[in-house]
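F.,

This is the one I mentioned.
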């Protein structure tokens, strides 16, 4: 039976036409994306409708778990987590509903972790009197694997990273999917900060203290705001062996005004600002001017030629200013962080990282 397409407001229409590639890349079944977005008329119903779909996957996963079918449970609970996540990710005008869906995403992904292949564990890292939360997964059969820290963007979280994790795990690298300040579980306690080398340095200290991870072989991979954070950390902390920067701004303020209002609201929320204007002022510090030239480790830089959020010219500028080896990949027809052209960079970047971390 064909899905009935309802009349929708502008934000829902934008989601239908612009978000499919990202959702599918993150693990949302394409049929779910089409059915759910076509059933929504008002943005106000976005989170609730996605949460209803997530609950179906959650129920299937919990049922599989109760019957001892761990592999099926891991799959369905991970799908539930990413559906809850995309219900909340830009639902900033309704913080209580947003947080409720977010906690369900965390709950489902945490429940899934032991049943994945390879399994994972939830990590709490002390930070400024509280904690940063992360998901650690280690490749099977490797005693002390190198580690790739996966860094979210402004509206992303660690629950969106299952498929990205798998790319590195399949190449014998461990993954640590991190919610940094202002991101995911940490967004309620801490605002985002431009000097991401501070929290990331604490995370790298934690990696070095583990005897089942190789703290001498640490890579970073980040997209969107994470694509700004990767070069920032690489410039300031020389423990970074190699970094992948996808769709990051060189100077975030230069790209602030043209961004959709929904993203500006995300900046307001995650900078802990009272207004978008205040968030804009705080954004001025997110700038690689005078920083990029200090990057000496290898960097893989990705820019989408059709990116309407961050210009690919930022990728070109970053590549021209770093002091270390650069691989610059500009992708024709690619949107923000190139979700719609994943075949053009995902395995290639993972192979590149494997080579630089000594597992290629």
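My design for it:
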């Amino acid at each position: 039976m064909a899905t009935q397409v309802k009349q929708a407001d502008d934000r829902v229409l934008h989601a239908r036409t612009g978000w499919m590639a990202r959702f599918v890349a993150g693990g949302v079944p394409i049929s779910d994306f089409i059915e759910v977005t076509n059933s929504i008329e008002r943005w106000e119903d976005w989170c609730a409708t996605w949460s209803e779909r997530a609950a179906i996957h959650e129920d299937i996963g919990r049922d599989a778990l109760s019957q001892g079918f761990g592999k099926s449970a891991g799959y369905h609970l991970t799908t539930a987590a990413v559906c809850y996540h995309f219900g909340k990710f830009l639902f900033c005008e309704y913080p209580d509903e947003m947080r409720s869906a977010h906690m369900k995403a965390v709950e489902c992904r945490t429940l899934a972790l032991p049943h994945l292949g390879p399994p994972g564990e939830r990590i709490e890292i002390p930070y400024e009197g509280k904690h940063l939360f992360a998901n650690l997964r280690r490749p099977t059969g490797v005693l002390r694997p190198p580690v790739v820290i996966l860094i979210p963007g402004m509206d992303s979280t660690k629950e969106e990273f299952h498929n990205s994790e798998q790319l590195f795990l399949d190449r014998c690298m461990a993954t640590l999917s991190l919610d940094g300040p202002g991101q995911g579980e940490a967004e309620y306690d801490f605002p985002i900060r431009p000097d991401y080398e501070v929290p990331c340095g604490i995370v790298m200290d934690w990696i070095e203290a583990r005897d089942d991870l190789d703290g001498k072989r640490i890579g970073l991979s980040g997209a969107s705001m994470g694509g700004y954070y990767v070069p920032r950390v690489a410039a300031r902390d020389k423990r970074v062996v190699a970094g992948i920067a996808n769709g990051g701004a060189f100077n975030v303020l230069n790209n602030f005004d043209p961004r959709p209002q929904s993203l500006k609201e995300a900046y307001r929320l995650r900078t802990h600002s009272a207004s978008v204007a205040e968030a804009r002022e705080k954004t001025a510090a997110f700038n690689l001017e005078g920083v990029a030239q200090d990057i000496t480790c290898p960097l893989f830089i990705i820019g989408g030629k059709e990116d309407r959020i961050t210009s690919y010219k930022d990728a070109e500028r970053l590549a021209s200013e770093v002091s270390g080896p650069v691989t610059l990949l500009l992708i024709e027809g690619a949107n923000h962080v190139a979700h719609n052209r994943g075949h053009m960079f995902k395995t290639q970047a993972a192979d590149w990282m494997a080579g630089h971390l000594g597992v290629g």
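The mean pLDDT is 96.

Talk soon.
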